[in-house]
Amino acid sequence: MQLYVIRRPSAWATLADLEMAGAKSARIGNDEMSDQLRWIRSYVVHEPDGRIGTFCIYEAMNGEAIREHARRVGMPGEEFYPVATTVIVRPDPAESVPA
Question: 25 to each of 10, 37, 54, 90, how far by Cα in Å?
Fold first, then answer.
């Protein structure tokens, strides 16, 4: 499988909307398409228009698998790029948990 970055700009109005889409995405990826793609992680961003967007890291057989998964979930899936290489300067920081 090839590693891809998928850009989903301004795809959700709220974090709750994203959470629902994420649950559906995981279910479809794990239950229906596990032989074609794997969701690795997502970086969630606040877009300039006030909506929520993501940069998602997936392993996929090809771009068509990414498009099909996005279609089944009902989210954007046309802006994706194969990863040429990975440069890790340091690992992602641990998320802080409020006391």
Answer: 17, 11, 13, 28
